[in-house]
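We close this part of the discussion by returning to an individual protein. In the encoding step, the backbone of a single protein was reduced to a row of integers, each denoting a local shape. The sequence in question and its structure tokens are set out directly beneath this paragraph.
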Amino acid sequence: MGIHRLNHAVLYVRDLKRSVAFYRDVLGFRPIPMTPDGFRGAAFLQAPDSTNDHDLGLFEIGAAAGPSPAGRTSVGLYHLAWELDTLDELAATAERLASAGALVGASDHGTTKSLYGHDPDGLEFEICWIVPADLLDADALAARKRIGRLDLDRERQRYGGQTRGGVGISVPA
């Protein structure tokens, strides 16, 4: 089986308009007009630089829906992770998430530099930058075994703010 990437994710949300506004205004997703005629309570969105038909489907289940118990009292999805091209984009995303009150963490995983956020329903997501294959060194590889504090300024000095991430890993070299 030749799976090579995640094409899209679908989330159940309480308030469709609120969720669409969050993913559009904070993360830059754009609504795609593909909801079937006569079908209400669904939206499909595409990430800013995506080549997918859509990256996110949202299905409204109403304000009475409780929070997801996944990871606390049931099995389920922990989070989704989306990759950005540059550390400068990651820093700008950190500012947007913080301004929206949605930034809940930032971690250095050695080969991956990550932000963590919650959407309006408390669903967690990750936004990350991946060290390009030709810049991986023993320190970055060893750091995959621990979770460190992310210092974006230090990482931009080390790798460059405009260095394209994931080259040779997520995208061909």
